[in-house]
Automatic annotation (TrEMBL):
Top-rank lineage group of the source organism: Bacteria
Domain Aminotransferase class I/classII large residues, every copy: 39-385
InterPro entries recorded: Aminotrans_II_pyridoxalP_BS, Aminotransferase_I/II_large, AON_synthase_class-II, PyrdxlP-dep_Trfase, PyrdxlP-dep_Trfase_major, PyrdxlP-dep_Trfase_small
The protein's required cofactors: pyridoxal 5'-phosphate
Organism expressing this protein natively: Acinetobacter shaoyimingii
Protein name listed in UniProt: 8-amino-7-oxononanoate synthase
Amino acid sequence: MSLLDHYADQLDSLKHQGQLRQFTSAQQDGRWIMVNDHQMLNLSSNDYLGLAQNTQLVEEFFDLMPTSAKRMSSSSSRLLTGNFAEYEALEQALSDAFLGRAALLFNSGYHMNIGILPALCDVRTLILSDKLIHASMIDGIRLSKAQYYRYRHNDLTHLEQLLSQYHGDDKFDRIIVVTESIFSMDGDETDLKALVAIKSRYTKVMLYVDEAHAIGVRGERGLGCAEQYAVIAQIDFLVGTFGKALASVGGYLICDPIIRTFLINHMRPLIFSTAQPPINMAWTQFIFSKMQDLNAQRLQLKQLSQQIQTDIRDLGYACPSSSHIVPIIIGEAQATIDKAKQLQQAGFYIMPVRPPTVPKGGSRLRVCLNTTVDQQDVINLLKHLAHSSFKS
Ligand SMILES: *Cc1c(COP(=O)(O)O)cnc(C)c1O
């Protein structure tokens, strides 16, 4: 038996269960996506403000950049020779926007989430996390020395039960509560005001909140749910990514200056990885600045989101969303795959999401809205959805 058989067998079994992951070659063109010569409306994109597909912005940016600024590699970690002025300028812009708090940049949101918690946590740290946090935070928790319990999704009463159970335990010096603001699979959100109120009652508690799906989309200046609910100063570790609404790449942390310095000294993915190319930093700063003025687009996205949530519930589907990420919960995996296929044939690029990504019986179609989608698109989609539910 070849050593490869072990892996080939597992791939066969994934394929058999209809769970084999594959790259599909797709071309994106504005609001459209082409897969195998079939054009569909892209309802699976993270480009929530349509900025990544805005070629005018790209032209404007490159017109501003002299060739000397078009540096495509930093050639080292920021701790060696890779700390270009572009990093410090972007961190300053973030700091200015986020009420003067310190800012630290990372190569990606994944780097950020697998690096921060292992650096900050020792065996005397307890992590309490929402059950549905993103894989990157789960990996970060696993790499850390902390003890770890999960509370039921968005159930802050359960969180408080765990806190009252463990807060008095001398084994723990600190308790870090880890959550997302807008959740990537359910599109629902944590009540950040309530979370901050809980923190104020427990002296050992620090909050870690991932705004990957909220940055650019929430708050008057697009700074996320923390801005929307006026709790920027109360969240100890406020993180997010530039890879979604901000049309770029990278992660950021807003924190106390002590934490920033501590991470520069202890966070392995920051210390031991070549920093992003300076040109990317300059682009992120360009977009970060533009994005703050797009409140009209944010309001438009909000209205469209509310419309589709209502319409989906009116059709009789469960839909936990309160955001632009709108799952249509079908339940059974095969029925979900069939429905996704029907909608794709009808011209809507919507992906089915099944276990193990979501709990058993919770298979769903995941619709991601962006500002290039309009009311008529939603009306057309709902027509097809009603039609296909009638057929099955
Ligand atoms: C996408 C995502 C990340 C990863 O960010 P990248 O910049 O793509 O690596 C982290 N957390 C959450 C909640 C995400 O949705």
